[in-house]
Each structure stands twice: as structure tokens, then as C-alpha cells.
């Protein structure tokens, strides 16, 4: 059944939510306060690099199920049934999530919501926020519902349209069911719980993934020390259904828009409740140490000093398939290299602009030219497919630090390069 929906906020979560809900038959108005963004979206221009999203926006706009409106107040009508809040909740100075944008919108639109409507919070918010928003709203005829998202950048559309589960939480069961029914065409199990539990599910899931990533990075370091191969170890672990294969790939540390802020927010939640979370704190500390390990690998590849060393960087985005630089481990490693005196030249197929401490070029071969060492920081398939024999000719040195274990060591060794992976033995140079 078609529902009339308003989505407030047109970033990753909001735009994906609006476009996908329209694609399964709902009437959706996406609202934002950024006039330029609304104009671009109305013209079919999607600035977010997300597979399938631009096509959904174009199709929904063409079919009349999706429209873009300047301001939340202008988007709400007498027939609005559900309003999704997809607003940023950045990390505050104390590490807690800053929910002022969410509270501001609720205060602004509260009186305009028609009786019987539901206000669904998709933003990641601290436990107890849904209840506080209901108090702020002050209306018994409008329910506030927690409906956390579980979208991964680079696969957000696929994740939305093929979800593992839908989680809805509210003190009003009828309102929770109405929100859950919006997703009925997707055929996913719908878990209806209280609001606090729904909010906790989001944090608990992300923090578990962060701990799992930190664990495999620690295992990778141990593999380097004892001569094991973390790829083989992770493969052996992944067959165990209690563990699974996902999130067992080591790298330069986890980052992006969610895990760093959500882990710190969870620590604040624990502290506010009078408890501690030493396991999560250890995972955060291990993540910071992992970036330091990557810097040390590059320094060692450059002969023990980075002062004046020419280093080529492949990748800046926090993961392949996105143009998102928020809390990118690649940028963190790059900043540390620059601070130690390295001269950096970088290329990323999705990133343009200027960055302090490095020169960004539009060709990967230009990035590696004259480099003492090359560092792969983002696992773009374009880098795997490079002509590594040509790279070897362009470089001054022979060392490649593969922080993602994305490259084929035999291919690089055959080109005369020495490959330093994560959690696996260094592959020595062979004469081409």
C-alpha cells in the first residue's frame, strides 16, 4: 500500500531512504535546508558516489513518486503519514553524539504534523533519545518511533532493498507496526521492540563490528611476528558459522562516518549509565595503534626515515566505492607520513581537490613516479589492475606497502617490487 512519506535530510541515509522507499511504491518528499543541493537533486544530479542511487533518484522523479523540497515545513502536508528524520548526529567535544539538529527539526515541525502521523528517527542517536523527542514533541496524537538504519557506504542501495532485518522501536505498538509495514515489499523480518532497545541495537551492532575489525588487525600483527599468513588464518576462522567471514580483512584501521563516532558515543552512553566498557575502549586504542603500524611499515620501507622521502599514495577515501573522506584511515596515515617529513603524491579515482601536506594528481602512474615507496590505502579495483611492471619502471624504489592486502604479491614480485602486506610475510623481489 502506498504511503505518503517525508524524509528530512538528504545525505547518505536520507537520500538512500527516500529514493528506495519511492522505488517500492511510496510517495516520498525529501526535504533539506540546502537550496543548492535541492536544485541539483531536482535536476537529477547526485553528488554522493553510491552504486544505483542516481538511477533510483532519476526514476523516482520521472515517475512522480519522489520529489525534493526546500525545508521540512514545506514538505509536510495534511496527508503525511510518516516523517523520517535522517539528520547528522556528529561527535561532540566530549565524544557523545550531538543531537541538536534532530531536536531542532522536531521543535520546528511538531505543530505541523497531522494527527496519527509517526515520526521515525533513522539518525543514530543515544539510547533514550526517542523518549526525549516524544517529550519535546508534546503530542499524544503523534508517535515517535526509533527505526535505525544498517546501511554500508558503497552498498547502501543494495542493503536497503535487501535487508537482513528491519528494527522498529516505540512505546506505541500500532505506530511501530505502521512504520514496519512500509518495508513489507522487501520481505525482511521485522523486529518490533521498545525504543531504547532499538536505539541500542544500532550502537551494539556497530561497536561489535569495530571490535571484530580491531581483533583481526591484532591477529594480523601477531601473524607477522610468528610467520603466519592472516589471509589463511581468517579463511579458517570464517568457515566457523559462529564467527563468519565478514569483517575479517585486516587493514589500516577502521574509519568512515559511523564506527569512530558510534564507538565513542557508546562509551559515553556507558559512562552516563554509571558503567564502563573496557573492551570497547581497547578496540578504539587498537585502531589508533594500527594506523601507527602502517606508518612504521612505510618508514621502514623508506630505509628508516621519512624525511624528504618521496611516497606515492593510492587511495584516500575511507573505503572503495565511495567518495567519503570522513575519518578516513587513509587520510590519517597520510597526515602522519607528512608530519614525519614525507613528500606525498596521491591519487584516488573518486576524490578531487586540494589537501594539506600532499599533492593530489589525476593519474595513478603520476602518483608513483619517482617514489621511494608506494602505499595502497584504499582497495580500489583500479589499483589492482595497474600495470605493475610500468609502476616499477616509474618508481625510484622497489617497495610497495599494501595496507589492504588487495594486490597479488606474485604479480608485483615478478615486476621487481617488494610487497609489504598486513599480517603476511614480505614477498621478495624477483628479477623480472
Structure notes:
The chain is of the alpha/beta class and 432 residues long. The chain is 42% helix and 14% strand. The strands form three sheets. The protein has a six-stranded parallel beta sheet, sandwiched between helices. The protein has a six-stranded parallel beta sheet with strand order 11-10-9-12-13-14. α5 links the parallel β4 and β5. The chain is elongated and about 70 Å long.
Main sheet record: 6 strands, parallel
**Strand content range:** 5-15%
Shape: elongated
Strand order of the largest sheet: 3-2-1-4-5-6
Structural class: alpha/beta
Mean pLDDT value: 96
SSE layout and pairing:
Elements: E1 4-8, H1 12-23, E2 27-32, H2 35-42, H3 53-63, E3 66-70, H4 72-75, E4 82-85, H5 100-109, E5 118-121, H6 129-137, E6 143-146, H7 156-161, E7 166-169, H8 173-181, E8 190-193, H9 195-226, H10 230-238, H11 259-272, H12 278-301, E9 310-314, H13 329-339, E10 343-347, E11 358-360, H14 364-368, E12 373-376, H15 381-384, H16 388-394, E13 399-402, H17 409-414, E14 418-420
Parallel strand pairs: 1-2, 1-4, 2-3, 4-5, 5-6, 7-8, 9-10, 9-12, 10-11, 12-13, 13-14
Give a concise summary.
With 432 residues, the protein is of the alpha/beta class.
Amino acid at each position: 500500500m502506498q504511503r505518503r512519506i517525508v524524509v528530512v535530510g538528504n545525505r547518505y541515509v536520507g537520500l538512500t531512504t527516500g529514493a528506495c522507499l519511492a522505488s517500492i511504491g511510496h510517495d516520498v518528499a525529501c526535504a533539506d535546508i540546502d537550496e543548492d543541493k535541492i536544485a541539483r537533486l531536482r535536476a537529477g544530479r547526485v553528488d554522493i558516489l553510491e552504486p544505483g542511487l542516481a538511477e533510483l533518484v532519476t526514476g523516482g522523479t520521472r515517475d512522480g513518486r519522489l520529489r525534493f523540497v526546500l525545508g521540512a515545513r514545506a514538505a509536510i502536508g495534511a496527508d503525511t503519514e510518516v516523517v523520517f528524520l535522517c539528520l547528522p548526529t556528529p561527535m561532540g567535544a566530549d565524544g557523545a553524539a550531538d543531537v541538536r539538529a534532530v531536536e531542532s527539526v522536531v521543535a520546528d515541525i511538531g505543530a505541523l504534523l497531522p494527527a496519527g502521523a509517526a515520526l521515525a528517527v533513522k539518525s543514530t542517536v543515544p539510547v533514550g533519545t526517542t523518549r526525549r523527542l516524544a517529550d519535546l514533541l508534546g503530542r499524544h496524537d503523534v508517535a515517535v518511533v526509533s527505526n535505525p538504519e544498517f546501511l554500508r557506504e558503497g552498498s547502501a542501495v543494495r542493503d536497503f532493498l535487501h535487508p537482513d532485518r528491519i528494527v522498529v522501536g516505540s512505546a506505541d505498538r500500532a505506530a511501530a507496526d505502521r512504520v514496519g509495514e512500509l518495508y513489507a515489499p522487501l520481505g525482511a523480518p521485522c523486529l518490533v521492540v521498545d525504543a531504547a532497545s532499538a536505539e541500542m541495537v544500532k550502537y551494539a551492532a556497530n561497536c561489535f563490528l569495530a571490535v571484530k575489525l580491531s581483533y583481526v588487525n591484532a591477529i594480523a600483527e601477531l601473524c607477522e611476528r610468528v610467520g603466519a599468513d592472516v589471509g589463511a588464518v581468517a579463511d579458517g576462522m570464517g568457515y566457523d558459522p559462529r564467527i563468519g567471514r565478514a569483517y575479517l580483512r585486516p587493514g589500516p584501521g577502521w574509519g568512515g562516518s559511523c564506527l569512530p563516532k558510534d564507538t565513542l558515543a557508546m562509551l559515553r552512553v556507558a559512562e552516563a549509565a554509571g558503567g564502563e566498557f573496557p573492551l570497547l575502549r581497547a578496540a578504539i586504542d587498537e585502531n589508533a595503534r594500527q594506523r601507527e603500524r602502517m606508518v612504521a611499515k612505510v618508514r621502514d620501507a623508506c630505509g628508516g626515515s621519512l624525511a624528504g622521502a618521496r611516497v606515492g599514495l593510492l587511495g584516500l577515501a575511507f573505503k572503495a566505492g565511495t567518495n567519503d573522506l570522513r575519518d578516513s584511515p587513509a587520510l590519517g596515515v597520510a597526515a602522519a607520513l607528512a608530519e614525519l617529513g614525507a613528500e606525498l603524491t596521491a591519487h584516488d579515482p573518486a576524490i578531487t581537490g586540494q589537501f594539506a601536506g600532499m599533492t593530489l594528481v589525476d593519474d595513478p602512474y603520476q602518483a608513483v613516479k619517482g617514489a621511494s615507496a608506494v602505499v595502497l590505502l584504499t582497495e580500489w579495483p583500479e589499483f589492482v589492475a595497474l600495470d605493475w611492471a610500468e609502476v616499477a619502471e616509474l618508481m625510484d624504489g622497489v617497495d610497495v606497502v599494501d595496507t589492504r592486502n588487495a594486490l597479488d604479491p606474485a604479480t608485483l614480485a615478478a615486476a621487481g617490487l617488494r610487497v609489504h602486506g598486513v599480517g603476511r610475510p614480505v614477498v621478495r623481489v624477483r628479477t623480472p
